[in-house]
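testing teh design pipeline on a random one, pls ignore if ur not involved
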């Protein structure tokens, strides 16, 4: 007898903002959609067609995301580059019980632009904006409302990716 079940990928973001003095300013928790290419990459990694050894965290400036988004084509929203350097690495733990997270090594952004609007975050296989193939957005999500950061603020981003199943 063949058993069928549904597997659904989910990603949850937890973002904390601290001012330049280390005082907690705000916290956002939000889910995201997983793009078509993100789901394809997940399946390809699981079943061995290829493996991405590095994932990176980016910040979303605003606009609406779509399951068809790629890093080269996400017309509904813009990336926020309110920090210096490359996108920080998503340094995760070993997956257990259908969940993997970077809780032990959060992605840290130091804001270097005053009045920076941050609307969410995303997970990609690219550390920078220089282009290359293939640049995949695994998932992208947004805050309940856009947040404004100041130069010197620190954003700590924790991402938890989960796969649930039902029979």
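output:
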């Amino acid at each position: 007898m063949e058993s069928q079940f549904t597997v659904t990928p989910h990603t949850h973001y937890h973002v904390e903002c601290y001012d330049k003095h280390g005082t907690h300013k705000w916290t956002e928790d939000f889910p995201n959609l997983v793009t078509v290419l993100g789901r394809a990459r997940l399946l390809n990694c699981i079943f061995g067609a290829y493996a991405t050894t590095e994932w990176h965290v980016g910040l979303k400036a605003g606009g609406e995301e779509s399951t068809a988004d790629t890093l080269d084509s996400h017309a509904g929203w813009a990336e926020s580059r309110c920090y210096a350097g490359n996108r920080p690495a998503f340094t995760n733990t070993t997956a257990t019980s259908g969940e993997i997270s970077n809780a032990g090594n959060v992605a840290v952004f130091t804001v270097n632009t005053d009045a920076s609007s941050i609307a969410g975050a995303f997970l990609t296989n690219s550390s920078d904006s220089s282009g290359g193939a293939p640049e995949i957005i695994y998932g992208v999500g947004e805050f309940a409302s856009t947040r404004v950061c100041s130069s010197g603020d620190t954003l700590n981003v924790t991402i938890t990716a989960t796969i649930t199943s039902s029979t």
